[in-house]
Amino acid sequence: MRPTRFALHRPASVGEALALKSAHGDDASFYAGGTELLVALKARVLQYGHLIDLKPLSDLRRIEAREDGTLVIGALSTHHAIAGDPLVRKLVPAYAELSGQVGNIRVRVAGTIGGVLCFAEPHADAPTLLCALDARLRLVGAKGDRIVAARDFHLGEFTTDRHDDELLASIEVPPLASARAAYRCFRHTERPAVGVAAVWRPQGPRRLDLWVGAITGVPTRMTESEKAAEALPGELPAAEAWRQLQPAVAAEAETLAAVDDLHGSADYKRHLATILAQRALEACLT
Question: What is the pTM for the complete model shown?
């Protein structure tokens, strides 16, 4: 099936893109990589009279590091570009690795990090790790810029905190310093059935950030498992640390509000969450 007819606009600036969205309102949508949007348009799940193509906006494809070590990724950066970028590989290697595994090569070359975040399809990799990394999203609109924590951005399936008159400009990942991050997932049909992200911060007050994604409509924090990790005595070998953490992780996984779908049953996903948490945690603690 083909999409319904639409007008394609190619603005030369962010301001022009926002003006076009304001002029056409609900009959217009921003268009980045199109790997999610075009599928929905062809299925006629979504219909718009106007698409605002953001690809000409090169400023939104920049990847750079600030003086304090914060990594800034432009929202139009493709998964392929992120996976191979020297700064990302140096500062947040776990995210470079994740980006290199997204979908297939066609999706990685065309799909953008901003498109994935704004489309908010639950079976996606990026949101889970960005939550664990304490990432922030910069949104721009006619009323100015605002910053939203990645963990507050997704409100439900296909629903975000982005206002209709805003576009996502960049993603900011704070410095990891001595922290270690890892993401592990199990895929069906090139999408994660379940994904688990862990970030272990051993310096200062020890802290674990453990998030599970694709199992519910939004990434879910495993707070009880985090508390158990912070109570671990001293420096333990990864295998021993997991032996002590496993009961807490398994118990919390059983409480996750998983749903049955094409990617597996709820019980199957809860079991996967425990297995993937072990793999992510061992990668961080080794």
Answer: 0.94
